[in-house]
Amino acid sequence: MFERKSVLITVPIVLLTLHSIRAQTTPEKSESERLQKLERAVEQLQERNAELEQEVTKLKKQMAFAPDVDANGNKKVVSDGKTYVEKGATTEEKKPVYVTPAGPEYKLALGGYIQMNFEDGAVSAFEGRFPNGPNQVKDRFRLRRARINLVGDFAENFDFKVEGDFQQGDGLSGGRSGFSATDIFVNWHQFPEANVKAGQWKAPFGLEQITPDPKLFTIERSLPTGALTPERQIGVQIWGKPFTNLWPREKDLLTYYAGIFNGNGRNTITNDNNNFMYVGRLELLPWQGKLLGQDASVKLGGDILSSRDDAGTNISQALNLKVNADGSLTPFVLPSADERTAWSLDAWLNFGPFDLIAEYFSEDVDGRTVAGVAPTFANFNPSGWYVQGSYFVIPKKLQAVVKWEELSPDQVANDGIRSITGGLNYYVHGDAIKLMANYVHTWSDFRAAHPQFGDNEFDEVILRLQLMF
After folding, report:
1. Which parts of 66-104 fold into alpha helices (H)?
2. Closest CA to 469 of 115, 117, 122
3. What distance in Å separates the CA atoms of residue 242 and residue 259, rounded to the nearest whole number?
4. Burial state string for 277-299 with b = 16 or more CB within 10 A and e = fewer than 16
5. pLDDT of the chain along its 469 residues, tens only?
6. What whole-number distance in Å separates Cα of residue 200 and Cα of residue 162?
7. CA dihedral 224, 225, 229, 234 (to 10 degrees)
8. Strand partners, 299
9. For residues 85 and 76, is the Cβ–Cβ distance under 8 A?
10. DSSP code of residue 247
11. pTM
12. How many CB atoms lie within 10 A of CB 329?
């Protein structure tokens, strides 16, 4: 095969050379000159032919020692008259997996976080869960939250969020982990002055309540926040920053929220009656700038709530409010219909590494007559407050926190509960990887006034590992 190729290569070259010589030869040149040129051309052709023959011989030797390969590049080995395939050291590159949105989203993000607790001592005593009481909690490791969420934006000025928690299982035993929805909503944001939001999320009442869980400075929210705020609800809300276009430099000066909700908690597709819960919040940022070379700001807020509830509605969605015979607390499920009004005020001062946050809550729970049936409980006016200070001992790494809180359920004499929390937060990688440690000391006024029920002071240690992704 290679000899035939050599001849095929040599013949055209000779013909082209002769043609060139013939074209360049004029009648005036002698026969001897033409013969000399022809001899030189033949010598050059012979030299080139010898080089080609050497290259062909080299190729033959390489092919003799090179093993055959299959379509995937694997070597073929012959042994005992049989052919085997020897796979190469490197494996075939795997094809990538593609996930594409089915809708017209131009932004889609998958995220979530995990919070793992260790709780020891009088666990959750600050929530009114006293040892040997009807809802006592023992020492435990606790998967506090395990959430996954999907958020996205549409070109038509819509954004959405779908989030679920693997720790909270609605309808399951209280001692089991399960999965349930937390936030599911769609928000129309074409006009920053008037966003329209529909679905399920936290009703805009209470600064600590609407602060995202991973960004809290203490491991758990205060008892007043849990007992007196409505938590997640299903409804519709209009909200925005009215100065965004009118006064761009001060767009964060004022933010408002106004919502209408079913009022009977999250993941409940039916309303308890034909009435709704009305919630409103105003946030004011009167000053933001530099103070002694440090970033500083002052933020103020106020909330209001009105609701008419039927019997069987839990009015303490997040934590406990009803006072038991031993002074402990359990969720307050209405024995008959009520009418509620509530309000709160909050303030947040930031000065470099220092934050000071305070909040006060008040609520009126009044029984009402429905279809001639009088209320079966006495009116009461629960209230509570907390103040929290924090300071970065090591900038952006190690933070010390102290919080004082009080709740007065106002159902029996001396039913107040007070707690002080001391804590340290270590930010391994911001809020994405955070270690937290809290020590909580709690006093029960009711237990102090009624020593027959046991201890009136309780201690608890809580540790947390937080990972966001």
Report:
1. none
2. 115
3. 17
4. bbbbbebbbeeeeeeeeeebbeb
5. 444 444 444 444 444 444 554 545 444 456 777 777 777 877 888 777 778 787 777 766 665 554 555 555 555 544 455 455 455 545 556 677 666 777 776 788 999 999 999 999 999 999 999 998 888 999 999 999 999 999 999 878 999 999 999 987 554 555 677 889 999 999 999 999 999 999 999 999 999 999 999 999 999 999 999 999 999 999 999 999 999 999 999 999 999 999 999 999 999 999 999 999 999 999 999 999 999 999 999 999 999 999 999 999 999 987 899 999 999 999 999 999 999 999 999 999 999 999 999 999 999 999 999 999 999 999 999 999 999 999 999 999 999 999 999 999 999 999 999 999 999 999 999 999 999 999 999 999 999 999 999 999 999 999 999 999 9
6. 10
7. -150
8. 348
9. yes
10. S
11. 0.79
12. 28
> Residue 414 region, left (φ>0) first, then alpha (ψ -120 to 50), else beta?
left
What one-letter code names the amino acid at 446?
A: F
Work out the burial of residue 325: count CB atoms within 10 Å of its CB; fewer than 13 is exposed, 13-18 middle, 19 or more buried.
exposed
Nearest to 161 by CA among 149, 144, 173: 149
Q: Where are the strands (E) in 136-227, listed by range?
A: 140-154, 158-165, 180-188, 195-202
- AA identity, residue 2: F
CA distances from 61 to 7, 9, 23, 451 (A): 20, 21, 42, 102
- Closest by CA to 456, choosing from 423, 414, 421, 422, is 414
Q: How far apart are CA 73 and CA 81, in angstroms?
A: 21
Q: 398 has which bridge partners?
A: 394, 426
User: Which amino acid is it at 418?
Assistant: R
What's the longest Cα–Cα distance across the chain?
141
Q: Residue 323 is inside which H or E element, if any?
A: strand 322-323
φ, ψ at 78 (rounded to 5°): -100, 125
